[in-house]
Write a structure and sequence with these properties.
It contains 1 helix and 11 strands; from the N terminus they run βββββββββαββ. It has one helix at residues 103-108, and strands spanning 3-7, 10-13, 18-25, 33-39, 46-51, 58-60, 68-73, 78-83, 92-99, 117-118, 122-127. The strands form 2 sheets. Strands 2, 4, 5, 6, 9, 10 and 11 form a 7-stranded mixed β-sheet that branches. A 4-stranded antiparallel β-sheet has the order 1-3-8-7, with no helix packed on it.
């Protein structure tokens, strides 16, 4: 059965960095766009970043542009989210998602509706 498993979350001070990984298993996701969403305490889930199946196109929420970088390694069936200059408002559970629709469509799904696959999430906590 296809699964997405996130890792790399943890506690970090403001201004620090973390690298999240999302490992897919059970099938190859090279034909899927992949991305990240997050949900902060008391907030709705929101889009963070997406990448096309080829890796040629990427999309970011305005709140993370210039700080976060999404990438993928299809040979390893893994997508990454490099997070730099972290802020307390980045604190959230980060979820990996995969979908057959184009990455541009994933980026427009502000709350992550309609994704084909979801990971269970990894918690990122940024302290002041």
């Amino acid at each position: 059965q296809a699964q997405l498993v996130e890792s790399g979350g943890g506690l970090v001070q403001a201004g620090g960095s973390l690298r999240l990984s999302c490992a897919a298993s059970g099938r190859t996701f090279s034909g899927y766009c992949m991305g990240w969403f997050r949900q902060a305490p008391g907030k709705e889930r929101e889009f963070v970043a997406a990448i096309s199946w080829s890796g040629r196109s990427t999309y970011y929420a305005d709140s993370v542009k210039g700080r976060f970088t999404i990438s993928r390694d299809n040979a390893k069936n893994t997508v990454y989210l490099q997070m730099n200059s972290l802020k307390p408002e980045d604190t959230a559970v980060y979820y990996c998602a995969a979908d057959l629709r184009p990455a541009q469509i994933m980026a427009l799904k502000t709350h992550g509706d309609g994704m084909d696959y979801w990971g269970k999430g990894t918690l990122v906590t940024v302290s002041s």
